Amino acid sequence: LNEGTAHLQGGRLQEAEGACRRALDLAPNHPDALHHLGLLLYRLSRFDEAIATISRAIEQAPASPLYSFNLGVVAQKAARPDEAIRAYRQAVTLNPRHLEAWINLGNVLKDRGALPESIEAYQQALALNPSHADTHNNLGAAFKEQGEMERALASYRQALHLKPTHIEALNNLGLALMETGSLDEAIASFTQALTIMPGYLKALYNLGIAWSWAGEHEKAVDCLQRAATAKHDHAKPVTDPFVYRSRIKHDLEQIQYLFERQLLHDEHRPYFQALQQLDGELRRRPDPGNRIPIAPQRLAPVAASFNRLLYRAPNPHLPDGALHPDLNVEAVESRYLAQQPEVTFIDGLLNREALEALRRFCWESTVWKKDYENGYIGAFLGDGFASPLLLQIAEELRLKFPRIFKQHRLTQAWAFKHDSTRRGLNIHADAAAVNVNFWITPDEANLNQETGGLVVYDKEAPRDWNFQEYNSDKNKPKILAWLKQVGAQTVKVPYRTNRAIVFNSDLFHETDEIAFKDEYLCRRINITLLYGFRRNG
Question: Taking a C-beta distance cutoff of 8 angstroms, is the pair 498, 438 a contact?
Answer without folding.
Answer: yes
